[in-house]
Design goal:
By secondary structure, the chain is of the alpha+beta class. The chain has 6 helices and 6 strands, in the order H-E-E-E-E-H-H-E-E-H-H-H. The protein has one domain. The strands form 3 sheets. Strands 1-2 form a two-stranded antiparallel sheet. A two-stranded antiparallel ribbon has the order 3-4. A two-stranded parallel sheet has the order 5-6.
Length: 189
């Protein structure tokens, strides 16, 4: 039964990749043409049990005079969350799941409390319970509580619930009905 689920899950990921591939390809070309740099951003993140892996994202920032800033195109890509779509490859390769705690920097593993480190007991995800429950992305400790709750209650029905809520949450953000307080401060800032 486990192998059947594994097979069907990968078929689902390939189907989703097929559906979103026009958006990914268009965005890659737009980054190359408009921002004039490599469209891919690979970074080491912490996976299940704290094992490192390279997350695949689309580049939304530029570095000028050793200062990182989001490009104009990058702001649109981030708003629409298109930069997250390439993480479907991480899901296909088994490093991530569709649902789970967001993968954070490996160095954070040393900073978690005994309670918070439990978030690493499951694969990281493209979306998670914290993403649909916490509007202020800087509220790390609050997000970690949701991550640990998810890790203790993970199930297919819970994943389906989170995926459905994510879709509605995302549509509300894109249409301007919901605002995410988003800046990318680090956990230790």
């Amino acid at each position: 039964m486990r192998y059947i689920f594994f097979f069907l899950y990968h078929i689902l990921i390939l189907f989703i990749l097929f559906i979103v591939s026009p958006f990914i390809i268009f965005t890659i070309l737009a980054i190359i043409i408009v921002d004039n740099h490599n469209p891919f951003y690979l970074e080491e993140r912490s996976g299940m049990l704290g094992n490192p892996f390279l997350i695949i994202k689309l580049r939304t920032m530029k570095i000028s005079n050793n200062v990182k800033s989001v490009t104009k195109l990058g702001k649109i890509i981030r708003l629409l969350k298109i930069d997250e779509l390439t993480q479907l490859f991480n899901v296909f390769f088994g490093q991530m799941s569709l649902v789970g705690p967001r993968p954070l920097y490996v160095e954070y593993n040393k900073k978690y409390s005994d309670f918070e480190i439990q978030r690493l007991n499951v694969k990281p995800g493209i979306t998670g319970l914290a993403q649909i429950k916490v509007i202020d992305t800087n509220n790390w400790r609050f997000k970690f509580k949701y991550d640990v709750f998810y890790s203790k209650h993970k199930s297919i029905s819970f994943d389906l619930y989170i995926l459905c809520k994510t879709l509605f949450f995302y549509l509300n953000v894109v249409t301007g009905n919901k605002i995410i307080i988003e800046n990318h401060n680090r956990f230790d800032d």
